[in-house]
Amino acid sequence: QRQHPKRSESTQAELVHKMEQLEVNLAKCERQLLEKELLVKQVTQLSEPLRQQVENCKQDSLILAKKLNEVRTNIVSTNHRLMAISAELSIKQAAALSQQQQIKDKELQVRQDHVTHLPYSSQCRPHILEANGWNQMPNGKYTTAEARPDSYIPQNDPLGLPRPYGALAPCKPTKTRGQHETHPYSLKIYLLK
């Protein structure tokens, strides 16, 4: 089987034509690739400042977020302090109101006692006497004398219960000097040479 020379020539010519066409297409693709690389390079150069700006904005936003968190924690702590102070204030106001009410009640009691010509009420009497130095004795009478001990705790008693003195209670010693005595004064002696 012989090949036809025309066919091989035509095939060779077609192959050369296809090869030229492929070379043209390859050159075209290379040119497009170079154009795209140039375009990518230009876009990268143009986008670099924007990328830097975005990075700077990220840093700024991070700093801003930290400051915002600090401000929020300060606000929360200030709110807690304000709530605590307002609670204290309301407690003190309630105490002041109750004291004012007690004062009004006592003033009303004093006015009523004044109208009925009583020197002071039975509720105020023990307080007034104590303020003036009077102490109530067990029998109900008032005195200005200091209460003497009427019992003692023995040293050998394991329970430590007080025992009454009975008739031989210890007496309180008086001051060594009376107020009527004059205190001696020292004379200074000067020697002359």
TrEMBL record:
- Coiled-coil portions: 12-39
Question: Which keywords are on file for this protein?
Answer: Coiled coil
**Source superkingdom:** Eukaryota
The protein depicted here goes by the name Coiled-coil domain containing 146
Q: Which species expresses this protein natively?
A: Nothobranchius furzeri
